[in-house]
TrEMBL record:
Family indicated by similarity: Belongs to the universal ribosomal protein uL22 family.
Name of the protein: Large ribosomal subunit protein uL22c
Organism from which the protein derives: Berberidopsis beckleri
This protein's GO CC annotations: large ribosomal subunit; plastid
Key words, A-Z: Plastid, Ribonucleoprotein, Ribosomal protein, RNA-binding, rRNA-binding
GO terms for MF: rRNA binding; structural constituent of ribosome
């Protein structure tokens, strides 16, 4: 049985973030398993409102790793990222004729765990590799160099 080193992981936890857990999971699924630098680039370029608090959490977890543990930021990988539902803030909005309408503001808790892959031997080739490059370059080369082109079909 291989024993994992518990000193290779650092985490950051954001609680009561005012957004739906479903919307935060849409962003978290894109960054899970990627390297730290790649994650920062992805989060800066994604057009979702959930990216900013997740960006702050990833940055905070990396600061924890470099300050508390002395890890190098180039060796960090997001090993675990999860979103849990928090409490729902319930308010009443006044409406016409003395009625009221319930307003529900969902919150979520986000946990980001970073792992240093330089210390953990079994996870050196662990994080996601860009598989889209192989698929699309093969398709483009086939389209460019094939005898029948796209414009030959009638």
């Amino acid at each position: 049985m291989i024993k994992k080193n518990p000193n290779t992981e650092v985490y950051a936890l954001g609680q009561h973030i005012s957004m739906s857990a479903h919307k935060a999971r849409r962003v978290i699924d894109q960054i899970r398993g990627r390297s730290y630098e790649e994650t920062l680039m992805i989060l800066e370029l994604m057009p979702y409102r959930a990216c900013y608090p997740i960006f702050k959490l990833v940055y905070s977890a990396a600061a924890n790793a470099s300050h508390n543990m002395g890890f190098n930021e180039a060796d960090l990988v997001i090993s675990k990222a999860e979103v849990n539902e928090g409490t729902t803030v319930k308010k009443l909005k006044p409406r016409a004729r003395g009625r009221s309408f319930p307003i529900k503001r969902p919150t979520c808790h986000i946990t980001i765990v970073l792992k240093d892959i330089s210390l953990d031997e079994e996870s050196i080739i662990w994080f996601k590799k860009p598989e889209w490059k192989k698929k699309y370059t093969d398709m483009m080369c086939h389209d460019i160099y094939s005898s029948e082109g796209v414009w030959d079909k009638k």
